[in-house]
From TrEMBL:
<dbReference type="GO" id="GO:0010181">
    <property type="term" value="F:FMN binding"/>
</dbReference>
<comment type="similarity">
    <text>In the C-terminal section; belongs to the PPC synthetase family.</text>
</comment>
<dbReference type="GO" id="GO:0004632">
    <property type="term" value="F:phosphopantothenate--cysteine ligase activity"/>
</dbReference>
<feature type="domain" description="DNA/pantothenate metabolism flavoprotein C-terminal">
    <location>
        <begin position="6"/>
        <end position="214"/>
    </location>
</feature>
<comment type="function">
    <text>Catalyzes two sequential steps in the biosynthesis of coenzyme A. In the first step cysteine is conjugated to 4'-phosphopantothenate to form 4-phosphopantothenoylcysteine. In the second step the latter compound is decarboxylated to form 4'-phosphopantotheine.</text>
</comment>
<feature type="binding site">
    <location>
        <begin position="125"/>
        <end position="128"/>
    </location>
    <ligand>
        <name>CTP</name>
    </ligand>
</feature>
<dbReference type="GO" id="GO:0071513">
    <property type="term" value="C:phosphopantothenoylcysteine decarboxylase complex"/>
</dbReference>
<dbReference type="GO" id="GO:0015941">
    <property type="term" value="P:pantothenate catabolic process"/>
</dbReference>
<feature type="binding site">
    <location>
        <position position="99"/>
    </location>
    <ligand>
        <name>CTP</name>
    </ligand>
</feature>
<comment type="similarity">
    <text>In the N-terminal section; belongs to the HFCD (homo-oligomeric flavin containing Cys decarboxylase) superfamily.</text>
</comment>
<comment type="function">
    <text>Catalyzes two steps in the biosynthesis of coenzyme A. In the first step cysteine is conjugated to 4'-phosphopantothenate to form 4-phosphopantothenoylcysteine, in the latter compound is decarboxylated to form 4'-phosphopantotheine.</text>
</comment>
<feature type="binding site">
    <location>
        <position position="161"/>
    </location>
    <ligand>
        <name>CTP</name>
    </ligand>
</feature>
<protein>
    <recommendedName>
        <fullName>Coenzyme A biosynthesis bifunctional protein CoaBC</fullName>
        <ecNumber>4.1.1.36</ecNumber>
        <ecNumber>6.3.2.5</ecNumber>
    </recommendedName>
</protein>
<feature type="binding site">
    <location>
        <position position="109"/>
    </location>
    <ligand>
        <name>CTP</name>
    </ligand>
</feature>
<keyword id="KW-0285">Flavoprotein</keyword>
<comment type="pathway">
    <text>Cofactor biosynthesis; coenzyme A biosynthesis; CoA from (R)-pantothenate: step 3/5.</text>
</comment>
<feature type="region of interest" description="Phosphopantothenate--cysteine ligase">
    <location>
        <begin position="11"/>
        <end position="219"/>
    </location>
</feature>
Length: 219
């Protein structure tokens, strides 16, 4: 039983969706439940790591033994991650961060006037790419939620974001991925890859944490 393969290491995990406000009462977000990221945080604690969990708005109890920092928007998540990055050995970005946010958050509730409503969105910062570009960067593990060309897009993100490892997540499979208890991952790194077949997110998290420990210790 690999209980201490991450002993002494500091790990930061992001989990859940972000929530991007439109006005005082509305936001855009996505279906991430946080289950995958919370399972990874739990598995990392059990593997002996000191874990900081940066969580978007989710309805989950904090895994025993990890430090939790709650955030709402991508900007807030980036701020939290930059605070902890300095003392992070391994960063695992499981969060489904909104790629865009409203260009302006309305100060007052948007009124129902015309038959159409047009909103303008601007790019959010890429948290993972920002952390991976730091001078003293941690070992960076990304996720890639894809509905087509899964492996190719995942490999693109591995290279373009400067990652050490990426977990490709085909989100078209029934009963897996967003907001379910099960998932399947194709984990890819520079000179290897491994399929972690469909199982509970807890099982997958254990498998992923083991792979990360193996690759991290090769460095
Ligand atoms: O939360 P669950 O319901 O358990 O579902 C789990 C999951 C499907 C959300 C998870 O397994 C998953 O695939 N997470 C990544 C979702 C995602 O937004 O992927 P992406 O391909 O858009 O992003 C690529 C990587 O960059 C991810 O590691 C993401 O955290 C990161 N990213 C993306 C955009 C951004 N602005 N900042 C980021 O850090």
């Amino acid at each position: 039983e690999p209980t201490s393969e991450l002993a002494g290491l500091k790990i930061m995990v992001t989990a859940g969706p972000t929530r991007e406000p439109l006005d005082p009462v509305r936001f855009i977000s996505n279906h991430s439940s946080g289950k995958m990221g919370f399972a990874i945080a739990d598995a990392a604690v059990k593997a002996g790591a000191q874990v900081t969990l940066v969580a978007g708005p989710v309805n989950l109890p904090t895994p025993q033994g990890c430090q939790r920092h709650n955030v709402l928007s991508a900007d807030d998540m980036l701020k939290a991650c930059e605070t902890y990055a300095e003392s992070t050995d391994i960063f695992i970005a499981t969060a489904a961060v909104a790629d865009y946010k409203a260009s302006q958050v309305a100060e007052n509730k948007i009124k129902k006037v015309g038959d159409e409503l047009t909103l303008t969105f601007i790019k959010n910062p890429d948290i993972l790419a920002t952390i991976a570009a730091r001078q003293n960067k941690p070992f960076c593990v990304g996720f890639a939620a894809e509905s087509e060309n899964v492996e190719a897009y995942a490999r693109g993100k591995l290279v373009n974001k400067g990652l050490d490892m990426i977990a490709a997540n085909d989100i078209t499979a029934e009963g897996l991925g967003f907001n379910s208890d099960n998932n399947a991952l194709h984990v890819i790194w520079n000179d290897g890859d491994k399929h972690l077949p469909a199982s509970s997110k807890a099982e997958l998290a254990k498998g992923l944490v083991s792979l990360i420990a193996q690759q991290y210790n090769k460095n």
